[in-house]
């Protein structure tokens, strides 16, 4: 086939073209590198190294020629700039780590890459994100994207005046604009599912601990989870199958749960599937255009044989204050390592060691990161720990219990991934309004449950709407199956922005 059409192929279709040698990994890499350069205006990439990418592509071609390549060998991928990656800088979109080069790959990068035992995928570059993954709009990056001299917000390919969501906004924009067939993201409180919703793509956060956090720069250790983002559930199933698996020697939070092929049950019938519909996901605050799209998607599921079951998740609203106590508390601890001593940014002018710490962190961290560090330090301080942090942990347990009660009556839970479609860049300058936009994604994160967002239609202005599906622990196959059957019956995931 013509290499000019490669970006229209799904991961599975491109993998088949590579396996059958209708196109080479080098040709595929060159095509997507050219697209990334042509669409620099979106600000999706923060690092590209053509020589490194083409060297990996040649290695992938050699694997394919020898018959040793896996089913994703040669398929290009780009990584959120929160995963340490050999050959590329890793900055977490922060001035604190500007120019940092890691001597090793994150486990997720290694498992997907052209390495011994890896899937053979070719790294195109690193993708923009909110600084240290703290944000819901991808407006908090302190690193200049490729083609720019200064930091820029990532732009939504469906409307460049709108945000792509965050923190994995660069990842979502890259897939939506067909700059990469597949990407990695991370989800702490919704940072895969919300940008997937805003950009009209599919993204899944697996059960906490299924994908290794080794080499993933920590924000909130009890919440952070890696996951794939692609155009379809099938694409995500292929990627997640390679990403998951125990990493007990490197990651203390990794689960001793076997790897799984998430593609095996994609085509199973969903006749009789019980879909829980929480009243709390459809109340005040849900935009009318989003609700209309979600309601239509649920009706489509009924046509496919699923049954809608009313349920309640009574502590949904409490997930926002709970998350914004626990996540900053963990962030304040995790980010204490960035002090100007061992690696990263160091202030040029200081009077003593203590002053160096203060100047370095004042210069190196952006406003949102500083805000969360201060909140975290406050809730962990003597006299406030019991009132805030400990109480939040108790409510977190209750939120998890609410889900287990609901799963007695249903198999999966459905609702909007976000209360609105993508807002205008700069449209939520108030931090609290940004935080409230996570209300539907936070509960599953606090409970450690798998969650998926898939394209479910369009709202006002032709902006994408995402349907969120939440499953019980280790129910990724069921979520991907439900999403895949919906995508076989609809074409929302095939739609692309004008000019793409």
TrEMBL record:
Protein known as: Glutamyl-tRNA(Gln) amidotransferase subunit A
Reaction catalysis annotation: L-glutamyl-tRNA(Gln) + L-glutamine + ATP + H2O = L-glutaminyl-tRNA(Gln) + L-glutamate + ADP + phosphate + H(+)
Stated family: Belongs to the amidase family. GatA subfamily.
NCBIfam families: gatA
Assembly with partners or alone: Heterotrimer of A, B and C subunits.
Active site positions: 80 (charge relay system), 167 (charge relay system), 191 (acyl-ester intermediate)
SUPFAM superfamilies in the cross-refs: Amidase signature (AS) enzymes
Cellular component annotations (GO), alphabetically ordered: glutamyl-tRNA(Gln) amidotransferase complex
Stretches assigned to the Amidase domain: 28-480
Organism (species): Comamonas aquatica DA1877
Gene designation per UniProt: gatA
InterPro entries, per database record: Amidase (IPR000120), Amidase_dom (IPR023631), AS_sf (IPR036928), GatA (IPR004412)
PANTHER family registered for this protein in UniProt: GLUTAMYL-TRNA(GLN) AMIDOTRANSFERASE SUBUNIT A (PTHR11895:SF151), TRANSAMIDASE (PTHR11895)
GO aspect biological process, one term: translation
EC number: 6.3.5.7
Gene3D superfamilies, A to Z: Amidase signature (AS) domain
Function: Allows the formation of correctly charged Gln-tRNA(Gln) through the transamidation of misacylated Glu-tRNA(Gln) in organisms which lack glutaminyl-tRNA synthetase. The reaction takes place in the presence of glutamine and ATP through an activated gamma-phospho-Glu-tRNA(Gln).
